[in-house]
């Protein structure tokens, strides 16, 4: 650990980190930061490899090059000697000596071949080669002894690199600079591509977000970013889901505002007309004004309730409630409303179903559905309210309330919209003219706040069935008893 002992590692890291932090401030964009991070990492890797090699004194590439190149020289010398004799060998050794290699060739019997003597500094590598019978290279003295197989046996090529050749091979400033520039160029290109690959989808997502902020609610990220199976692709999908939800909420809000303005327009116009008639002495107009004012008051009350539902928290209030007892009290009060037209209300199912929830909200929820059924069931008919508790399941028990009337039902195309604010079905279910069209919407919101679900369907034998389901705390049971008639 020489670098750690002399403090080189700490000082180098500080020297790099300090200007690196300054450079990061010059690149506020994410692309510049990603590119600079990858580029600095590549540079640090190159520096670390060079420092480690220098500290440990290892030059593996130079050793491999030296062995391979001298082996080729030795093979050429053996071939020339076997085919051309000593004269051809002497000429070849003289030629390579001019290029900076002082070489000699020993025969299979160890005798010197040719006129070129063995360099004096090669005694050590020659002795090691005779013991190991393999290539021996000394990087410190630039000497080598290499066994070369031939037709007459195994020769030994002994070589010494001249100082001028060593300097040309070991240190070439131009070549070293070229290699560094090429390495940094390749690293920069790779870092550029990687930074672009990472930041391009983010910029695309940013562009979509700006389009949505400018009012283009139909802008989506997935088509712009293209098919991707990575985390950025999943982010685009989640972003589009969020955009879909925001678009739906805004469209619902716009629809609600249009419906509210429509609902207010008619009674306000009648009030204006009635006020003018009262000024002219028409006393009958005062009673019509009173009816319109009551309608406006009811509408405002329903809107405030719906607004509170949107801002409510599921855990805002949790009372222990006997759902069957609550239904029983609601039916007792509602029976007076149906008595003039001889509409009967019947409760069936369990006598006691316990659950947790907001008692006031749940009572409002069930009452809205029951009164809606009373308004739309014909004379001399009945309404059944069935309260049951499901069997124990891994997810717990579910309390179910079914409100069944004997009216004409609802057209199938209107069922999905039945719980939308201000939605009314035409013809017979609208003829009463009572209510603001918010009762079922409020009921559905209350059911959802209690973690349940609400749905409506037409019965085969006639009439509409509205079902409300609520989760029940485990361990609370129910008692089933006979139906009660009101």
TrEMBL record:
The chain crosses the membrane at residues 34-56, 174-198. Keywords: Kinase, Membrane, Phosphoprotein, Transferase, Transmembrane, Transmembrane helix, Two-component regulatory system. One of its GO terms (molecular function) is phosphorelay sensor kinase activity. It is a multi-pass membrane protein. GO terms for cellular component: plasma membrane. It catalyses: ATP + protein L-histidine = ADP + protein N-phospho-L-histidine. Its main location: membrane. It comes from the Bacteria. Residues 196-251 form the HAMP domain. Its EC number is 2.7.13.3. It is found in: Membrane. Residues 259-474 form the Histidine kinase domain. This is histidine kinase.
């Amino acid at each position: 650990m020489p670098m750690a002992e002399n403090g080189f590692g700490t000082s180098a890291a500080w020297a790099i980190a300090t200007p690196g932090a300054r450079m990061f401030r010059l690149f506020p964009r994410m692309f510049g930061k990603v590119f600079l991070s990858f580029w600095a990492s590549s540079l640090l890797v190159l520096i670390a490899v060079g420092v480690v090699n220098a500290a440990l004194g290892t030059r593996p590439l130079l050793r491999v090059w030296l062995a391979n190149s001298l082996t080729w020289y030795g093979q050429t010398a053996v071939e020339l000697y076997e085919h051309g004799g000593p004269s051809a060998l002497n000429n070849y050794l003289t030629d390579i000596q001019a290029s900076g290699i002082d070489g000699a060739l020993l025969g299979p019997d160890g005798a010197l071949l040719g006129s070129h003597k063995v360099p004096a500094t090669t005694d050590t590598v020659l002795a090691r080669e005779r013991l190991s019978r393999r290539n021996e290279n000394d990087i410190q003295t630039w000497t080598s002894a290499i066994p070369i197989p031939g037709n007459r046996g195994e020769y030994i090529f002994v070589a010494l690199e001249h100082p001028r050749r060593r300097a040309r091979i070991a240190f070439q400033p131009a070549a070293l600079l070229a290699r560094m520039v090429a390495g940094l160029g390749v690293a920069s290109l790779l870092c550029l591509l990687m930074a672009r690959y990472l930041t391009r989808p983010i910029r695309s997502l940013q562009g979509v977000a700006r389009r949505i902020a400018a009012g283009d609610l139909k802008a989506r990220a997935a088509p712009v970013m293209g098919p991707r199976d990575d985390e950025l692709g999943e982010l685009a999908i989640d972003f589009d889901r969020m955009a879909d939800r925001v678009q739906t909420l805004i469209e619902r809000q716009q629809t609600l505002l249009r419906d509210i303005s429509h609902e207010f327009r008619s009674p306000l116009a009648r009030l204006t007309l009635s006020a003018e008639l009262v000024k002219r002495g028409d006393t009958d107009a005062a009673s019509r004004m009173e009816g319109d004012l009551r309608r406006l008051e009811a509408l405002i009350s329903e809107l405030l309730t719906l607004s509170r539902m949107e801002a409510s928290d599921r855990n805002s209030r949790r009372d222990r409630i006997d759902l069957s007892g609550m239904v029983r009290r609601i039916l007792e009060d509602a029976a007076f409303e149906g008595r003039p037209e001889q509409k009967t209300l019947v409760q069936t199912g369990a006598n006691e179903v316990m659950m947790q929830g907001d008692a006031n909200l749940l009572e409002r929820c069930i009452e809205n559905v029951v009164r809606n059924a009373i308004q739309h069931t014909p004379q001399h008919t009945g309404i059944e309210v069935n309260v049951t508790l499901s069997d124990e399941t891994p997810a717990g028990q579910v309390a179910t309330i079914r409100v069944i009337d004997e009216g004409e039902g609802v057209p199938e195309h209107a069922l999905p919209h039945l719980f939308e604010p201000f939605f009314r079905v035409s013809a017979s279910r609208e003829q009463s003219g009572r209510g603001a069209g918010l009762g079922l919407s409020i009921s559905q919101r209350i059911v959802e706040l209690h973690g349940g679900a609400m749905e409506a369907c037409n019965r085969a034998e006639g009439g509409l069935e509205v079902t409300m389901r609520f989760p029940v705390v485990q361990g609370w049971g129910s008692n089933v008893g006979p139906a009660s008639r009101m």
